[in-house]
Amino acid sequence: MPQMGESVVEGTVTRWLVKGGDFVREDQPLCEISTDKVDTEIPSPGAGVIARLVAAEGQTLPVGALLAVIETSAETPAPTKPASAAAPPAKPPAPAPVAARAPAEAQTVAPSAPLRVAATGAPPRRYSPVVLRMAEDRGVDLNLVPGTGIGGRVSKRDVEHYLEALERGQVPGPPRAEAVRPAAAGPMVQPNGGTPPPPRTVPPTPTLAAAAVFRPPVYQPRDGDIVEPFTRRRKLIAEHMVYSKTHSPHVGTVAEVDLTKVMALREAHKDAFRNREGFALTLLPFAAMATVRALKEFPRMNASVAGDSVIIRKDINLGIAMDAEEGLLVPVIKSTEGLSIVGLAREIERLHRKVLEKSLTADDLSGGSFTLSNPGREGNLYGFAIINQPQVGILRMGEVKKRPVVIEVGGSDALAVRTMMYLALSYDHRVIDGVLGNRFLFRASRIIEEADFEL
User: Fold this and answer.
1) Could you read off the pLDDT of 214-223 as tens digits, one per residue?
2) Most CB contacts within 10 A, which of 20, 187, 335, 367?
3) DSSP assignment letter at 329
4) Residue 131: its pLDDT value, please?
5) pLDDT at 305 over 50
6) Which helix (H) or strand (E) holds 343?
C-alpha cells in the first residue's frame, strides 16, 4: 500500500484488476485503491506472475501493508538477498501481522499480555475522537487493541476487529472497572493465627464523567424521509474535520476588504485574458496571489504541526478548496512563490478541470502548507473554515457586494459606494498567536486593496 498523500494513513482495495496466476507487466494497473483524498490505480512495480492476492476487495489496509505477491519472471530475475539473510529465496516472506490486516473472519488476535507490556513501555498512544467514542460505548480497553496504523495508531476498524475477536472468544474481554485489594508478596498471618480471608472485590464507585456521558437521541426515519448512508469518503472527511476541531484550538478573525481597485483591474483585462487564456479571469487568483505574498512576509503561517514540533515550510504550497460530487477536495498548487498571477490562474483552472473530470492524482492533493477557500458568491457574508491538518491556518473568502462606506477624499470624509468583501482567517492557537494572525490577515487584505498586480 503506497503513501498516497501527506495525511493519508490507509486505503481500501475497491477492485482487483488481476487474479492469481496472471502475468503482469511493469506499471500495469493491479488494483483500484480508495482513500479519503483520492481514488487511484496501483501499478505493478515489475513484471512477473501474480503468486497470490493478499488483500481482499473491500479490505482497508495501512500504508506499507502487503497487497499482493509477484513472482518475477525468468527474464526479470528477483533481486538476491544479502548473505546474512537466511530465508529461502524461492519462498516469499510472510507479511508482518501489523502490515497486512486479514479479514475479520480469518484474523487471529494476539494474546493480551504482550500488548499490555507494549502499551506500558511505549509513549502514550493517541486516539481519534471516533475511536475514543466507540471504545467508551462498547467498554473497550484501547491498550489491548493492536493498532495497524502508522506508529501503531488504532483505527475504527481495529476496534471492530477486536470486538469480533472477543465474540469468537479469541481474546479475553477488557478488564472490568473493579478495585481489588492487592495481595501481599508473602503469606498473610492473622493475629489469631488463622487463614486470611480471600481478597474482597469492591464494586466501583461511579464517577461523574462515567455517569453523565451525553447520549444524543436517535431519530427513527418516518414515511417520506430519505435515508442517505455516509459514503466512505464522507465518513473519512467527517473524521478529519472532527480531529481538526478537537486537536487544534481554532481562533477566527475577520477583515473587511475594499475590492474596488482590484475589480476595476479585472474588468479592464477580463476580455483580453479570456481571448488569450481560454477561460474567465475571476477574483480567486488575486486572492491567491495576496495570500502567497503575505505568507512570504509571515513564514510562520506557512507551517505544519508534527507531534510536539512545528515545521516552518520552505515552499509555499497553496491548497485551493474546491467542491466535488463526492465532497470537498483541496488540490494543491506547488511552489507558488515562483508563480505570477497569470500562472496562478492557469494552475487553478487546470486543477478545477481535473476535479470536474475526476482525474485528480494523489500528488495533486498532497503537500499543502496553507489553504484558501472560496465557497461561492450567494449568501456567503463570511465564515470560519476548519483548518486542514496538519496546517496551521486557512483563509476563507466571503461574498462580494457593493455597499456604501465612508472613505477619505481630500482630507475629508465622504460616503461612497464600494465593492466590499469579508476575509476570514482560522488559525491554530497552539502555533499562531493573535498578534501574528491579525498582522497576516491585515497584510493579505491590504495587498488585495492596493491591486498591485501584473496581468
Assistant:
1) 777 888 889 9
2) 367
3) B
4) 75
5) yes
6) helix 341-357
Query: Does residue 371 contact residue 395 with C-beta atoms inside 8 Å?
Result: yes
- Interhelix angle 284-297/434-450, rounded to 10 degrees, is 130
Paired with 22 in beta bridges are none
- Among residues 137, 271, 429, 452, which one is catalytic? 429
Beta bridge partners of 321: 373
pTM over 0.70: no
Longest dimension (CA), the chain: 105
| Average pLDDT over all residues of the chain | 80
> Other CB atoms closer than 10 Å to residue 115's CB: what's the count?
18
Asked if residues 29 and 42 have their Cβ atoms less than 8 Å apart, the reply is: yes
Higher pLDDT, 124 or 178: 124
137, 323, 433, 452: the catalytic one is 433
What is the SS3 assignment for 35-58?
CCCCEEEEECCCCEEEEEECCCCC
Which residue in 64, 65, 66, 10 sits closest to 34, CA to CA?
A: 10
Q: Can you tell me the distance from the alpha carbon of 125 to that of 116, in angstroms, rounded to the nearest whole number?
A: 12
Q: Which of 150, 151, 156 is nearest to 142 (CA)?
A: 156
Query: What DSSP state is assigned to residue 185?
Result: S
Q: Would you state the torsion angle of the CA atoms of residues 444, 446, 452, 455, taken in this order, to the nearest 10 degrees? A: 50
Is 429 a catalytic site residue?
yes
Q: Is 235 helix (H, G, I), strand (E, B) or coil?
A: helix
Contact in structure between 284 and 377 (CB atoms under 8 Å) = no
What is the β-pairing status of strands 29-34 and 10-16?
antiparallel
Range of weakest confidence among 51-65, 108-122, 143-157, 367-381: 108-122
